[in-house]
Amino acid sequence: MGSLYSEHLTWLHRLGAGHKLVAMALLGSLLFLLPAPWMLALAALGCALLWASLGAATRVARRLMVSVLVAAALVAGFHLWMGRPDVAAVSALRLACASTLGVALTVSTRPTDLLLVLDAWMAPLARLGLRPERWSLQMALMLRFTEHFFVQWRRLDEAHRLRTGRPGGLRLIAPLTVQMLQAARRVADALYARLGG
Description:
single chain; about 0% strand
């Protein structure tokens, strides 16, 4: 499966995966507690500084962030059309900030490190008779498939640009869906072969 993890080491690579997950959860929750657009504008400035501080490590995710910013602009445009400029600013800034935090975590953290952290955090659930390794595996797979989705989309778009000189756009939905389903099937078969039913 493709990954957005960057081998360009940054200051964020030196922090543990657990610390980064906690920080992202707290900051992400804080974004939804900030009511005023100016507060979110300050948060966006902080996210922009975080993004800039990662330098070349963000190269693998730049196209993804451009897509997120376009989506944020579309959301803002919709709310402006509805006559709600305050909601437009809040929605667009929250989307851009949350995406920046998620991408910063992704480019600076190996997927295996995230899986180890989730295993450790969910280990106490074994006392309740649950199987925490299955929960952590499911969460790790959800994170990996989200990341793989964007990597696969980027590859298809680049291949389409090489053939036609234009971005793929909506034409990529069908082949992207097929490839994601095939990847999910391969992972399911591998898990069944190793872990059983």
